[in-house]
Structures are given as C-alpha cells and as structure tokens.
Design a protein that fits this description.
mainly alpha; 7 helices; elongated
C-alpha cells in the first residue's frame, strides 16, 4: 500500500468519513479512490493538495507524514501490570471514569456474592 494511501485512509477513518466523501472532495470516482487507499493508484498533486487542505495539513505534511499510525490497543490479553500501565497513560478524567467503572463492577460482585451466600444458607 502506498504510504500516502495509508495516511489518507487513516485520516479519513479517524474523522468517520466514507471513501465516497473523500472521492467527491477530489472529484474522483469512488472505485479509483479506493485503489488509492490500497496503494494501487496515485493521487494527482491537485487531489493531494485538496485532501491535505481538507485535513488541515500542507501537502508536504501529507506526503512526508512520518508518524506511526496508532494501532488499536486490546488490554484483555495483557498482564495485569501492563493493563495498569496503560490505564496510567490516560487523561485524569478518563482514568477517573475507568476507576468508577471498576468500583461499580466490584460493588456489584460483592452484592452478588453476598446474595448467593445468604440465599444458599436459607
């Protein structure tokens, strides 16, 4: 896949846009645009400039984008320590939300265990 195709696709998906919306922006048929994202076709300078401007970038920033595109993180199969380290990277408000959710689940579990224990004793 073309480097530019990867970047444009990531930018498009990050904004929740469809291929058709970007194809319309650059006056391109969607099937041709799809091939751009797959690295099978190149963008014209004019189309690259329109896309860069649309996303608030210069054409140079778009073509020479050197950041690694973040991959989805799944904590389910990580060790407890890795999970805690990932939570520690969150913004304070997000971290607070995670801990409130954990508190809710732990409280729910305590009540469930309490009722199971006491109902079984009847």
């Amino acid at each position: 896949m073309s480097h530019v195709g990867i970047i444009v696709k990531a930018l498009r998906e990050d904004k929740g846009l469809t291929q058709q919306q970007i194809a319309d922006l650059v006056l391109m048929h969607r099937s041709y645009y799809s091939k751009v994202e797959k690295g099978e076709r190149d963008l014209s300078v004019e189309a690259s400039n329109k896309i860069a401007s649309f996303f608030g970038l210069t054409i140079d920033q778009l073509l020479n984008f050197d950041s690694h595109i973040p991959q989805e993180i799944t904590t389910e199969y990580k060790t407890l320590m890795e999970q805690v380290e990932l939570i520690a990277q969150l913004d304070p408000e997000e971290k607070s939300m995670v801990f409130k959710m954990i508190d809710t689940f732990l409280t729910k579990k305590k009540f469930k265990d309490f009722f199971h224990k006491n109902i079984a004793a009847l």
